Amino acid sequence: MGHKVNPIGFRLAVSKDWASKWYATGKDYATKLHEDLQMRQCIKERLKTAAVSNIVIERAWNSVRITVHTARPGLVIGRKGELIEQMTEDLKKICGAATQVKIDIVEIRQPELDAQLIAENVATQLERRVSFRRAMKRAVQVAMDFGAEGIRIRCAGRLGGADIARAEWYREGKVPLQTLRVPINYGFAEARTLYGIIGIKCWVNKRPEVANAAPSGRPNNRDNRGPRGPRREREPRNNA
Question: From start to end residue, where is composition biased (Basic and acidic residues) (predicted)?
Answer without folding.
Answer: 220-240
